[in-house]
Amino acid sequence: MKVLVLGAGISGHTAALLLRRKLSKAHEVIVISPNARWNWIPSNIWVGVGAMTPKDVTFELAPIYQRAKIQFHQAKAMEIYPEGDKDSKSPFVMAESTVSDNQGEKIRVEYDYLINATGPKLNFAATPGLGPDQGNSVSVCTAEHAEEASHQVNALIEKMKAGEKKTFVVGTGHGLCTCEGAAFEYTFNLDFTLRHHGVRDKAKIVYLSNEAELGDFGVGGLHFRMGGFVNPSRVFAESFFVERGVDWIIGAHVEKVEPGKIFYETLDGAKDELSFDFAMLLPPFTGVPMKAFDASGGEITEKLFTPSHFMKVDADYQSKAYEDWAPDDWPKTYQSCYDNIFSIGIAFAPPHQISQPRKSKNGTPITPAPPRTGMPSAIMGRVVASSIVDMINGVSVKPTHAASMAELGAACVASAGAHPLNGSAVSMTMYPIVQDFTKYPESGRSLDYTTGEVGLSGHWIKKLLHYAFIYKAKALPFWWMIPE
Amino acid sequence: MSIQEANKYHAPKPTPWTLFLRYFLPWQIFRFVIINIRMTFMILKSHGRKLKPVKKK
Lengths: 484, 57
Fold this sequence. Notes:
The complex is a heterodimer of chains A (484) and B (57). By secondary structure, chain A is an alpha/beta fold. Chain A has a domain at 2-121 and 286-392: FAD/NAD(P)-binding domain (3-Layer(bba) Sandwich), CATH 3.50.50. Chain A is built from 10 helices and 25 strands. In chain A, the strands form 7 sheets. In chain A, strands 1, 2, 5, 6, 7, 8, 20 and 21 form an 8-stranded mixed β-sheet that branches. The radius of gyration of chain A is 22 Å and the shape is globular. By secondary structure, chain B is mostly helical. Chain B has 2 helices and 1 strand; from the N terminus they run ααβ. The N and C termini of chain B lie far apart (61 Å). The interface between A and B is large, with 62 and 38 residues. Strand 22 of chain A pairs antiparallel with strand 1 of chain B.
């Protein structure tokens, strides 16, 4: 049997390594990814302030896959033929090579099982002027983007040392962005770096976010027990912003970014401008656009994908009011309408947001999209790999493992400064990721397992995770003992 | 919603004792152990669940 994995990010790479470990050598594991290098994305925020280099957070995939006996094609998947075509009934994927020597060369890869883990398309085009390539802002979504951000920060530090005052804006570049946690981390690493260089008094830092309140993080906020009270994460986050002197604008949709100026609308319908010298704004995501065709060549893209190119899986996609959202809406096995196609990580279509959806008074949607990166992504990779192994080995004809985001918890460590003695991070756990107000009427989550605290130990944990997960991704001895 | 200036906003602020503990090595080593235990529990609770196999008819 051939198992094809599209994408070699956190979820796809985890699935490919586990499949290779659990399947006998009679079966093939094949990975198609447009990127030659693997990137531990959670550490990109450190590259963005110069605390790490791109080399520290990336490595070449080809030698790892060669050692692990996984076939690797450096290519971009373009089309899926789940029923084969008129010449062959074997399902296959058409991809285009991204290797510079034979760029664009078409590759046909047949499969028995397919995992779509293509991750996000960084949709900078959704906001005019957004992004580092054709726009006026920077990002930390890739190691190269983060390095460019670091160069800009360093140049501004030199100017501030000469006495100039500068404005830094960090946040989300569209009303429907996700990964607010990354923007939070970058904000406080920037604050830490500027303090370290002795120029914090010359800098105004503004956090600009689509969250309706600080501490929402795209999961509707959290509640922690602290000091004899159950506190919302809003209080926790506001305290942190005030302590570090970071201003904020929330409930914001960025309309366009001109050189040195951001135009935005907020939930109350007001439109305003913000001048900046440096802007790190995250883009909204779509799925990676792919087309699908049936055996006769008819297009069936709508059957497999949503209009935003995320793959439909075993979720409840009926449109519902916020009050009617239920944990059962969320997918469990990540199996699509084809029994042998699965989708994991950012590539699967969530049924709806986790945070309450909101629109501005002008009707502009301003709502964080649900985060599904890091730990949950890797766990999806594990459960889908385990199900496929059981299906191939004849244990079951249906998936044998489930991991709904309404049943999974997450451990998140949000860095607020990288230094072994002066650094800090917010260490959070939440359970479950998607609120379940039936089980936990008070806040939607278990107060025993939802926690948060700030301290130096959080920085040590973040650094430990950096090395542990890169070790694991390199498939070095006993890699499989490190949990997701 | 215009810009909220941090220095004009009244939020709970950490006491000097809290700030001291955030960087006090013995306390942070202890917290490192506690947070790791807490995260291990979370990981153990969050690796999905097994479903009943369905045999081919």
